[in-house]
Each structure stands twice: as structure tokens, then as C-alpha cells.
């Protein structure tokens, strides 16, 4: 299992945008920009049930997350690992992330069902 060093963790704790990649049914990659935070060595982000990444992770839990230092785009951290998902009926994670990244409360569209996606690292690479 991979661990986040203090050097890697600081990029996830700051308001840097991350790109998460899942695997489509045809084997091709599917990438999305997400807001993230850490929980121990795990990386958390929020998605909506039924979206492509949710369906992809339900089928194949392998993930890659790339986060780039907003001050120096040649510094980045890549985390490869496996996903677990849990329901977030109150939307607590998306609220927390919205405040972190935008300074505002999140307004969830009616009918959306939020899920917390947890990536447990197997490999962590820090460059720069």
C-alpha cells in the first residue's frame, strides 16, 4: 500500500484541482477534473450516482489521480489505487469541498444522489 508523504499531501490539502481517471467498458481512459481532500493516506472526492466515473468504478475499481501544483505546473503528484464508494445522502463532502475550492456553499441539483469516492493508494509518485 502506498502512503502520502508530507510533500505529496500538501498538494492535496491545498485548493489544487485534480484529475481522476477511470477505465471505460471498452478499456479506454475516462478523465475528469475533481475537487479532493485527504483522509489519512486516502484521497476523497464526490460524484453523483450514475455518472460515467461512478459506473466505471462500480465495474472496475482501479483509479489514477493526478494533482498539479497551481504555482508550478511541473510539480505534480500521481496516486494510483483502488476505489471504494459510499453513499453521501446529506452531501457533506461536496459541501466541504465547495467551501474549500470556491468559498461558497454547494447547491445540489434536485434528484442527484451523492457518493463519496475513496481512493486508497497503492503507488504514489511525487515529481518536482
From TrEMBL:
Keywords in alphabetical order: Oxidoreductase
Segments forming domain Pyridoxamine 5'-phosphate oxidase N-terminal: 9-126
Oxidoreductase is among the record's keywords: yes
Molecular-function GO term, any one: coenzyme F420 binding
A Pfam cross-reference name: PNPOx_N
NCBIfam families named in the record: Rv1155_F420
Protein name as catalogued: PPOX class probable F420-dependent enzyme
Organism of this sequence: Nonomuraea soli
